[in-house]
Write a structure and sequence with these properties.
The chain is α+β, with helices and mostly antiparallel strands. It folds into two domains: 7-143, 60s Ribosomal Protein L30, Chain: A (2-Layer Sandwich), CATH 3.30.1330.10; 159-298, Alpha-Beta Complex (Phosphoribosyl-aminoimidazole Synthetase, Chain A, domain 2), CATH 3.90.650. It is 30% helix and 27% strand. The strands form two sheets. It has a seven-stranded mixed beta sheet, with helices on both faces. The chain has a six-stranded mixed beta sheet with strand order 1-2-3-6-4-5, covered by helices on one side. Helix 2 (63-80) packs parallel to helix 3 and helix 2 runs parallel beside helix 5. It starts with 6 loop residues before the first helix and ends in a 16-residue tail after the last strand.
């Protein structure tokens, strides 16, 4: 059986369990974006909040990079559903000690991402307070074709793929990554994507989301994991493989397809970036790593998890 969820995701699941079905909502909490009726189409809604000292460091990283990342992580959520981004709302909580230049520079980063991916920034809110810098972006996208790709469609026997390379993102790539919007649309047009997610919390952590929503398990092949140069050359507190499995903030695409479509992708990669076949979906609800010797070992929930404390009893 899969191990218990982290407190953060157990809390999110408890929220989902309390919500009633609402007409016009095809999918609510529990995926990279919600799916809602939007006239004769289906829309995608997502939001991400970034905190100074957690998701970025304003003392050493430029406001332009911070603004760029704030929109890029939302674009990545739309990419994970193989959708098309359309509009964004931006809210800033600025430290009272900050100058107007901070907001202006952050907006430059936001605007660069919006222009690159044809996304209109249409509003938001700005306030100031005595706390650290906070930026929140809400994005509206559109489902491409007749259906969005969810986390819940993986099937036993499917092949697992990941784009790009993994690990070592905190050396700088977490600020400069390219959201895989175009790559997701190309894949959506080339093969039938059964399930997909962007790798934000870590390869294994995000794989667990697919497995739990799909009611399946998986085996990853250690020798097939694409490890970035940053992971190979970073400090040796963990092995490069461990970094690739758990570092997070890579914002690559992890997806499942049939063996037939998988063979098609292996034969001819339709993308301009790397594409790796890293494992298979299994019927048994476990998550295992096949080592270079062929041995199978359990994979714990590696990756980022917010620390949530239980409230003190009354």
């Amino acid at each position: 059986m899969l191990p218990d969820k982290s407190p953060e995701f157990a809390l999110i699941e408890s929220f989902r369990d309390q919500l009633r079905a609402v007409p016009g909502v095809e999918l609510g909490i529990g995926d990279d974006a919600a799916i809602v009726e939007w006239g004769s189409r289906l829309g995608l809604l997502a939001a991400d909040m970034l905190l100074d000292g957690v998701h970025f460091d304003s003392s050493s990283q430029s406001p332009v990079e911070i603004g760029r990342k704030a929109l890029a992580v939302n674009l990545s959520d739309v990419a994970a559903m193989a959708g098309v981004p359309r509009f964004a709302l931006v809210s800033l909580a600025l430290p009272r000690s900050a100058s107007d230049r901070l907001a202006v520079s952050v907006f430059e980063g936001l605007k660069s991402m919006a222009n690159e991916f044809d996304t209109a920034i249409v509003g938001g809110d700005t306030t100031s307070w005595n706390g650290p810098f906070v930026i929140n972006v809400a994005i509206v996208g559109e489902v491409a074709g007749e259906r969005a790709v969810k986390r819940s469609g993986a099937r036993p026997g499917d092949w697992l793929f990941v784009t790009g390379e993994l690990g070592g993102s905190l050396s700088g790539r977490h600020l400069t990554f390219a959201p895989r919007v175009r790559e997701a649309q190309t894949l959506h047009q080339t093969v039938e994507l059964h399930a997909m997610i962007d790798v934000s919390d870590g390869l294994v952590a995000d794989l667990y989301h697919i497995l739990e929503e799909s009611g399946t398990g998986a085996i990853l092949n250690a020798t097939a994991i694409p490890i970035s140069a940053a992971a190979r050359h970073s400090a040796a507190d963990q092995s490069p493989l461990e970094k690739a499995l758990g570092d997070g903030e890579d914002f690559e695409l992890l997806f499942a397809v049939s063996p037939e479509d998988g063979a098609k992708l292996v034969s001819t990669n339709p993308l301009e970036i790397g594409l790796s076949h890293i494992g298979e979906i299994t019927a048994e609800p476990t998550c295992l790593l096949r080592t270079d010797t062929g041995a199978l070992t359990p994979l714990p929930r590696l990756g980022w998890a917010h620390a949530l404390s239980d409230p003190s009893p009354d």
